[in-house]
Amino acid sequence: MAITGEHGALKGTDLGLSEADPRDYFALLKPRVMSLVVFTAFVGLIIAPGNIHPFIGAVAVLCIAVGAGASGALNMWYDADIDAVMSRTASRPIPAGRVTRDEALTFGLVLSAFSVITLGLLVNWFSAGLLAFTIFFYAVIYTMWLKRSTPQNIVIGGAAGALPPMIGWACVTGSVSWDSFVLFLMIFLWTPPHFWALALFKQGDYGKAGIPMMPNVAGVESTKRQIFIYAIVTALVGVLPYWMGFASAAYGLLATGLGIGFVWYAFRVLRMSPADEKMKPAKSMFGFSLIYLFALFATLLVDGLMTSLGA
Amino acid sequence: MIEQVSLTDKQKKARRRRSIAIALVLAALVVLFYIATVIKFGPAILDRPL
Questions:
Q1: Which of A67, A92, A72, A71 has the alpha carbon at shortest distance from A82?
Q2: Looking at beta carbons, which residues of chain A come within 8 Å of B2?
Q3: CB atoms < 10 A from the CB of A183, how many?
Q4: Which of A172, A190, A283, A291 has the greatest number of beta carbons closer than 10 A?
Q5: Which helix (H) or strand (E) holds A2?
């Protein structure tokens, strides 16, 4: 029973009483994106020089994950209109009508504040500041401003997704360094070819939603060229951890091999026929890009763990 | 006059599941802050004159 004030007889559904399940709120956190954030932040935390108590380290990763999830909820709050018209996002909790926009906004704001304050109190305020900046950058700079106004949206907005390993690093050291900046750069440069490969074969969706993704604005051929250039730079930066001395020779070898693979997939996209409607090379490139980034960070993680155990 | 609204079964079940989820999260936070406090301040935090 719910007391509703001096209104006539109403049904719960008329009042907008929620049928949202906890799973719907969890979906607002974009768990798949969050898993990449957790993983890269964890790698940053493990390979950073210095020590952190394992429990405090786990709390740090949890705070970064919740902060990333909160920015996902804020993104879904703001983008509910365009999510509703894209096949990939139409079943999200807000466009599907299971959670209201106000509920998502409150959820996102509360989790943002809670994750930043907890990270500050239990770990350090520098990393908390970086987390706050990341949430602000994703929710305000990317979602509210860049996404709907420029085809460079995911280039600049990619910074938000690239910051978690730097935050993980800062949780241990209380600062940033060139080494952690390279981790940032690896994800930052990887983001455009990764998303543009997706945008190539989801062009219709983005066009329908009015989002100025690169293929819709600059055209398919220009996007393919830019994917190729970014892939080369990404592959080169991928090897930097070895050259800068904070990753093993095994990592250097793997990064070189995977980098060549990444460029090869981008080359196949570059050579893709304009008449190719299935865009299989772009789909393969999208799939490989996920493996590429995961494999590099997994190897860095193994390197870091072996160094910690050996020390 | 105060009107009351009967929730549908689906709404009741959803509310119950949300309540359980909030309870679990709050309990986990109590444990988390308890352990974190002991770690940050050390066991000496428990050793104080009453």
A1: A92
A2: 3-6
A3: 31
A4: A190
A5: strand A2-3
What's the CA gap between A14 and B37, in Å, rounded? 46
Which pTM value belongs to this model? 0.86
Q: A11 to each of A7, A8, A97, how far by Cα in Å?
A: 11, 10, 17
- Residues A65/A40, Cβ–Cβ less than 8 Å: no
B11: chain A residues, CB-CB within 8 Å: 12-13, 17-19
Tokens of A42: 């964890």
Q: What is the ipTM of this complex?
A: 0.81
Whether A273 and chain B come into contact, CB under 8 Å, resolves to no
- pLDDT tens-place string over residues A238-290: 999 999 988 999 999 999 999 999 999 999 999 988 777 788 999 999 999 99
CB contact under 8 A, B39 and A53: yes
Could you tell me if A52 and A172 are in contact, meaning their C-beta atoms sit under 8 angstroms apart? yes
**CATH of span A16-176:** 1.10.357.140
Measured CA to CA in angstroms, residue A188 lies from A76, A171, A185, B32 at distances of 22, 20, 5, 33
